[in-house]
Request: fold
Amino acid sequence: MNLAQVPSPGRRRDDRAGCFGRHTVFSALSAALVCGCALLSGSGRASAQAAPTAIGPGSYVSIGLEGSAFQQDYGHHFLGGEGLFSDANLFRRIGIETEIRQLNFRTVEDVKETTYLGGIKISTNPKRFRPYVKLLAGRGKLDFPFHYAIGSYFVVAPGAGLDFHLRNSRFSIRAVDAEYQIWPKFTYGELHPYGISTGISFDLFSPGGSPRGLRFR
Reply:
């Protein structure tokens, strides 16, 4: 179906709800970045006294499930959803993250969003707290109102978050994962969905016998 025939959404919005949601995500992003800078600075000072292995999280591959809450932007509604993600940390601080997320809870007029993203993630591990930043890109799919049509678009998604590793166990808690998406070529103008996710993951591979295991995200 020609997307030009799809009716434009009623772009009415509750400014108070929109500002509150955006403030929440931006605050999470800012907090994660501030923690990252502070911990990187601390790890730099400690490097003269500690072994290099204390600086980065090491190599691992993990997969997991997550739950998300996003401001959809198309129609300005808040949606919930679920997703799958994987992390492949190839070097001390640099890794690859991929995620598939579907926003299909609390939908209005059957409007749903699905994203397929992947990209770079940079993290640090001074001790038990592991802040990170990420830059993902991929495809986003939007189901228009009342199943009228489905559109597919390019998406860029910067984000940040904080992991908390439980010492001597296979568990880690991801305190927050905040993401701000940009859909630059959307049919009715650029979209900017944003939201926060949390979940749990399991390590498939971790060399050296260091069990990282399950991670709340």
